Amino acid sequence: MRIFAASLSCETNTFSPLPTGLSSFQERVYFPSGTHPVEMMHCSGPLWVARERCREWGWELFEGLVASAMPGGITTRSAYETLRDHLLADLHLALPVDIVVLGLHGAMVADGYDDCEGDLLRRVRAMVGTETTIGATLDPHCHLSDEMLQHSNLLVCFKEYPHTDIRERSQELLELCRAAALGQIRPVSQVVDCRMIAVLHTNREPARGLVDKIQSMERYNGILSISIVHGFPWGDVADMGTKILVYNNEYEMDGLSVAQSLADELTAMRDELRLTYPSVDAAIDQALEHDESPVVLADSADNAGGGAPGDSTFILRRLLERNIGSVALGPLYDPMAVRIAFEAGIGARLLMRVGGKVGPASGDPIDAMCTVMALHPAMMMTGLAGTKTPLGDCALLHFEGIDLVLCSVRCQGLDVDLFTQLGCDPASKKIVVVKSSQHFYASFSRIAAKVIYVDSPGALCTNIALLPYQKIRLPMWPM
């Protein structure tokens, strides 16, 4: 058997002011065919697992392009078409193949392509023919489209949010694709659209119980795989929304009834899934009132992992105005300030302007007398499922009781080592502000006495009803 594996991944916030060009991929994850490192990247689970399985099965593996960008605004047509055609050229050189496995996101939007994954899978199918098994992993924050389903045999979403199960879902995909290619199963997809957009934090109920339930149902009574498609509300495309995807083995089970039952269950719990976010000042008050520390404040609206700039100053400004110390905050995206800090050197004390640079959703910059406490060139942070994520050159500044981590590569906060590598111990602080919506939780919950999700201003507005949608299909709860 011959397997081809590759990845092309990006989550697109169609409301973001930041275009996603080729350099956005090159500065994060960009490995041409045959150059992927030994360790797994967050986007390359299928390729990494295929290496393991092909050695075990004695099959032949062909490795194609692996590319992923930090979530941002619409991908340029040139960037998407260049990367797509690169991946397809790699596939062409590997033909004929029995299995194609891809690491995709599912919410990539480019200029002229509202459904990049559907476009890519259609072209892959046209190249390999109908007898080849095509499978892909997807981020649950995807836009599941008919074209994606039509031109693939198996699509498997990560089940956990934070996405701690990238390796496990990639293993699931490879095992199912192998069984399909050998004729042991004939996967049939069934989808039910819940006509809603939900946020499912799987570390808490009721989402935790639902994920446990679907995992207990898989591989029994003809059910091969079940995915909860959360959807990505900051993508204005026709297929946006929460869905249930079930694969059943042909002739063994009607997966549609299973999908409908799960969709009904998910719809019934939608009010329980809604989170209430306190305002910036209310969140700070709650943190100060809490007896134990640290209290972690999640700056969800400035989460670079959802396409936000990552340089907003709204929470930082209120902490300064209220003279609140014993705070760690990061990562704040400001390449210019990082360069100045590197030029000044460790121990330098100087007036610096930080943050608030990309646009109105970033707020105004902060001017403060800062001390450069630490510098770390080309710093890597522990990311999803233990993979490494670049933060670029990083600087730790201290001013008025606040330790601020600046990064030169835009990224959300994923692990406490974004602080500890620079000599800042977040566990010793009263308040830790992390620019992330939920992926931070896997790491920061280990030190947090309390976690508060903040309704801060920013590009990733938590009240999605205020977003200027033009393409989504209504009605869709809660709108």
**What is the CA-based Rg, rounded?**
22 Å
Most strands sheet: 8 strands, mixed
> Ranges with pLDDT <50 over ≥5 residues?
none
User: Biggest sheet, strands in spatial order?
Assistant: 12-13-14-15-11-16-10-17
Taking all residues together, what is the mean pLDDT? 96
β content, as a range? 15-25%
Oligomer: single chain
Distance between the termini: 49 Å
- Gross morphology: globular
Proportion in helices: 25-40%
What's the tally of helices? Answer: 14
Number of strands: 17
SS-based structural class? Answer: alpha/beta
Describe the structure.
The mean pLDDT is 96. The N and C termini lie far apart (49 Å). The chain has 14 helices and 17 strands. The chain has 479 residues and is an alpha/beta fold. Helix 2 (45-57) crosses helix 6 (166-181) and helix 3 (77-94) packs parallel to helix 4 (116-128). The protein has helices spanning 22-26, 45-57, 77-94, 116-128, 146-150, 166-181, 207-217, 255-268, 270-273, 280-289, 314-321, 335-344, 417-420, 441-444, and strands at residues 2-9, 29-31, 60-68, 99-104, 133-138, 154-157, 187-193, 223-229, 243-249, 295-298, 327-333, 349-354, 366-382, 388-399, 402-407, 431-434, 450-453.
Write the layout of secondary structure elements.
Blueprint lengths: L1 E8 L12 H5 L2 E3 L13 H13 L2 E9 L8 H18 L4 E6 L11 H13 L4 E6 L7 H5 L3 E4 L8 H16 L5 E7 L13 H11 L5 E7 L13 E7 L5 H14 L1 H4 L6 H10 L5 E4 L15 H8 L5 E7 L1 H10 L4 E6 L11 E17 L5 E12 L2 E6 L9 H4 L10 E4 L6 H4 L5 E4 L26
Parallel strand pairs: 1-3, 1-4, 4-5, 5-6, 10-16, 10-17, 11-15, 11-16
Antiparallel strand pairs: 2-3, 7-9, 8-9, 12-13, 13-14, 14-15
Helix pairs in contact: 2-6, 3-4
